[in-house]
Design goal:
The complex is a heterodimer.
Chain A: H1 3-8, H2 15-21, H3 24-44, H4 53-72, H5 75-102, E1 110-111, E2 116-117, H6 119-136, H7 150-165, H8 169-186, H9 190-210, H10 213-223, H11 234-246, H12 257-260, H13 272-305, H14 309-333, H15 351-369, H16 380-383
Antiparallel strand pairs in A: 1-2
Helix pairs in contact in A: 3-4, 3-13, 4-15, 5-6, 5-7, 6-7, 6-8, 6-14, 6-15, 7-8, 8-14, 11-13, 13-14, 13-15, 14-15
Chain B: H1 2-42, H2 44-55, E1 56-61, E2 68-69, E3 75-87, H3 89-92, H4 95-103, H5 110-122, E4 129-132, H6 137-145, E5 153-162, H7 170-173, E6 176-178, E7 196-198, H8 201-205, H9 207-211, E8 215-221, E9 227-234, E10 241-244, H10 248-258, E11 264-270, E12 276-282, H11 288-291, H12 296-304, H13 313-316, H14 326-335, E13 344-346, E14 349-352, E15 355-358, E16 366-368, H15 370-376, H16 379-389, H17 391-400, H18 422-428, H19 435-442, H20 452-464, E17 473-477, H21 487-495, H22 509-524, E18 543-549, H23 556-561, E19 576-583, E20 590-596, H24 602-619
Parallel strand pairs in B: 2-10
Antiparallel strand pairs in B: 1-8, 2-3, 3-4, 3-5, 6-7, 8-9, 10-17, 11-12, 11-20, 13-16, 14-15, 18-19, 19-20
The chains are: A mainly alpha, B alpha+beta.
Chain lengths: ~375, ~650
Amino acid sequence: MSLYNAFGRNPEMTLGQKALQMTWGLILLIAVLAAIGCVMLYSAANGDMQPWAQRHAVRFAGGLVLMLTVAMFDIRFWFRWAYAIYFVAVLLLVTVEVIGVVGMGAQRWIDLGVIQLQPSEVMKVSIVLALARYFHGVADEEIGRPTRLIAPLLIVCAPVGLVLKQPDLGTAMMLLMVAGAIFFAAGVRLWKFGVVLAAGAAAVPVAWQFLHGYQKQRVLTFLNPESDPLGSGYHITQSKIALGAGGMFGKGLLEGSQSHLNFLPEKQTDFIFTMLAEEFGMVGGLGLLTLYALVLIYGFAIALRARNQFGRLLAIGLTINLFLYVFINIAMVMGLIPVVGVPLPLISYGGTAMLAVMIAFGLMMSVYVHRDIRIPRRGLADAD
Amino acid sequence: MALLNEDHGRFKTFSRRAALLGGGKALLLGALAARMYYLQVVESDRYATLAEDNRISLRLLPPPRGRIVDRFGTPLASNDQNYRVLLVAEQAKDVQRTLDRLAQIIPLPQEERERILREVRKKRAFVPVTVREYLSWDNVSQIEVNAPDLPGISIDVGQTRHYPYGSDMAHVLGYVAAVAEHELSGDPLLELPGFKVGKNGLEKQYEEKLRGSAGTSTMEVNAVGRTIRELKREEGTPGKDLVLSLHAQLQSYVQTRLTSEKSASAVLLDSNTGGVLAMGSHPSYDPSKFNLGISSSDWRTLINDPLHPLTNKASAGLYNPGSTFKMVVALAALEAGINPNAEVYCPGHYKLGNARFHCWKRYGHGHMTMRDAIKHSCDIYFYDTSRKVGIDRIAAMAGKLGMGDAVGIDLPGERGGTIPTKAWKRAQIGEPWQGGETLVSAIGQGFVLTTPLQLAVMTARIAGGKAVTPQFARDLQARRDDAPADQALDAAVQLADSPNSFPALDISEAHLELVRNAMDAVVNEQRGTAYSKRIQREGWEMAGKTGTSQVRRITMAERRQGVISNEDLPWRRRDHGLFVGYAPVHAPRYCCSVVVEHGGGGSSAAAPIARDILAEAQRLDPLGQPVAPQVAGPSGDERI
C-alpha cells in the first residue's frame, strides 16, 4: 500500500474534512507547553536562546508537522502497520544492544546523523500500537481465557527484557506500566493483576541481586537522600532546595539562584521542572500541572469518543504513557521516587523525546479524526 | 449494526476502566500538587535558607589595627602598606612563562617557584596565590609598568605592623605575630590566614581594643565557589588607637643612654599621674623581625643570648635593692616611733651573737643620725635600727611603698619579687627567721628582691606621698586619621593631665619629708654618696639614693685582704649598681630608677644614668616651653 492510498482510498473523508476534525484545542495546549519549554530553556542558558531554546523551537516546529502528518493517516493504516512498527522497534532495540556490546557500556541510542534515535522511546509508542491491535481482536467474552493473554504478555516481555538489559530500569518500568494500563482497559480480569503484582513483589528481593551497583545506589539514595549530600543524593537535595526556595510565587525568570549558580544538575533536561518551580513558584508549577491535566483529559475524551476498540486502546495507552512521563519526572525532582532519567514532555531539551511525544500526539489525533470509522474485530482484510 | 453489538460489551468495560484509570491519574497528580505545596509553602523557609547558604559566602574583612601613639600623638606602632604580588592561574594561562617574566623584575629563587607552582596546582584556578610579600615601592611600580606582559599578576595592598622606633620600644610595645593554636578564642578573625595578634608588651595587653572587629563582605558564589558578585559589604570597626603616657623622645633617650652599659634597665615615672614616661631595658631586639616571621637562627640567637634581650628587665628583672631599700627601713622606724635624731655609732662592723656584720665603709662612719645614715648609706645604723623595728614592720612598709608584689602595671610579664617576713620564711623555706636575716634585709640584700619598676614606684610614693600606681595607657580613642600628631592639641592634653586622685599613703608627711630631705642630702650635700653626680642646673636638682646589690658573698679571707674592687672581678661577679631618684627636688615629678647589672657601685654606674635621664626629662618638659592655646580634648573616648 502506498502513502497515496492511505489517504486516497479513504472513502469517507477528504484531507480538508480531516483538518476540520483536528483537535485544535489540544494542539494549542501542546504549543503552549512547548513555548513554556522554550522560555525555561532560555532561562537555563542564563538568558540566551543558544544553545537550547532555539533548537527546541525548531524541533517543535518539525514535530508539529510530523504530528499533523501522523494525524492525517487513516486509523486503519496504523491498525494494519501496528505489528510491523512494533517489530521494527524490537529490531532497533536489538541493534542498540549489539552496538552497546561493541561500544563501551550502556549505549541507548543509534546515531542516525540527523538525530540520535533512542529505540526505547520508539518502543514506548510501538508497544501501545501492538497491544491495542491485539486486544482489538479479543472479544469481551474471550478475554477471560488465560490462553488469550499469552501473546500480549510476549509482546510486553520481549522489549522489557531488552530494555532491562541495556540496562534502563526506568524505561522498563514505564513499559510495564503502560502495558498494564492497556491490559486493564482491555478488560483483563482484576484478580489476574493481583496475581502479577504479588508475584512481582515476591520477585523484588531476587531482582535486587540483578540490579547494577549504580541502580541500587539510586534506590538507596532515594530512600535517604541526606545520607550523601555531595554524592548521589546531591541532585535530589539541591532540587528540593530549589523548589522550596521558589516558594509560592517564585523568584522570577532568570532569578533562580540554585539554577543559575549551577547547584542544579541537568537543568535543561531532567530537572527543568525544578527550575520552573524555583523561578515561578508553586503557582507556576501548578499551572504547568494543570496544562498537562488538560492534555490528559483530551486524551481520555478522545479514547471514550472513539468508536473502535483499537482507537480507544491506542488513545488510552498513549495518554497513560504521557501521564507517566509527567508524573515520573515531577515526582523524581520532588524527591518522591528515585532518580530515573525521564524527561518532561515538550519542556525538556532532547530530540528523540520530542519526536516520540509528537508522534504519540499525532496518533491520538488520528484516533480522534477517524473516531467514527469502524474496524471489524476480525481485522481489515476481510472488510476490504 | 453487527459491529456495534459485538463491541458493546467491551465498550462498557472500557469506559468503566478508563474512568478508574482517570481517577487514579487524578489522585497521583493530586499527590504531586500536595508535594509541591509541602515543599514550596510548608517547608519553603527552610529550603530558602538552604538556598541562601548555597549561594552566599561570607568573607571577613580584617579591620585595621589601632595605632599606638605616645603622649604627643607620635606614632610608635602603626600600619604600613604591605604590597603583595598575587598570581591568578586562570588569567595567567601559562604560569611558567608569567613567572619567568616576573623573575626579571623581582628575584624568584627556585624553591619559591616550586612553592608557587604547588599552590597553583592545589587551589582552584581563580583563587589568587601570593607570590611575594613586602615589595619595595620600586618593584611595585616596575610590575605595574610591565602589567601587560604579566597576565594574571596583580598587586594587592595589605597591612603590616610598623614600629618606627624599632628596638627602642620593643620591650614596651611588644610585637605582633601569627596566631598560635591556643590563642584561638572563637573570633573568626583569628582564623584568617596571615592575621596577626599582639604577642608581647602593650600589643598583647591591649590586643582586644587594638584589634577592632571584622567587617564582612557577602559574596554570591556558584556551585564550584567562584565569586559571581559582591552583594553587601559591612565595614568592620577599626581597632582603637592607644594613647600612652610614654614620651617617645625620652624613651629613645633612655634606651640609648643605657647602651653605655652591657645590661641595664631604667624606669621613669610621672609621680603626679603614675604615667610611665619611659621604660628601658638593654639589650633589646628588633620587633619587626617577629612581624615578618622570625628565622629560627635569629630566634636561637635571641633565646640563647646570656644578656636576655627578650626580657624586659625593668618590670621582670629581680634584683636585691641594696641600699635603695634603706628609705623603707627608715620610714618603718619613724612610723614605729624611733627618734631620727638618736645617734648610732658606726665602727665599721656590727656584732650579732657570734656573727659580724660589716659596713660598706671599712673603718666606720662614726656617730650617725638617720639623715646622716641615709646620706652616707651607713649600714650599721640600719642594722641597729632594723633590730629595733623588726622585719615584719619593715615588710609592711615595703608593701605600702609598692614592693613585694606586682604593682599591676598594664604590661604582661611583670614579676612580683619578694619582701620576706617571718611567716613568709616559715611557709617558703620551712625554717624560723634568723635575727641576722633582719640585718641583711635592712640593707636590701638576702631575700629581698624587687624590680626596677617597683623601685621607681617606691620613689614616686615617697616623693609624692600618694599611693601612685604606674600605667602606660592614658587613653583609648576611636581612630582619628585626620589628626596624626597635632602638637598644640597634645600640649593641651598634656596640661589637662591633672594629677590622678591616688589615695594618700598612710605615712606621716613629716616622716616622708625627713626621708626626702635625706635623699636630697645624698645628692646635693658634700660627702653625700652621689654628690658628684648631682644635677648642677638651678631648679633641676634631683634627690636620690644609691644602692649596690651584692652578687657574691664576700668571704672573711677576702675581707682580710681588703675588699677587692669591682673592676678587678670578672663581669659576671661584679655587683649590680642601683640608683633611685626624683627631680626637681622641691616639686617632685620625675621619678627614676636605674639598675646596671654587674655595673659595680650604684654611685659610679647607676647614678650618672639617672642624672642624665632626669635632666633630659626636665629639658623636654613641655611646661618649660611656651604653652599653646587651649584646645578641647577628644571627647567620647573610652577612658580606662
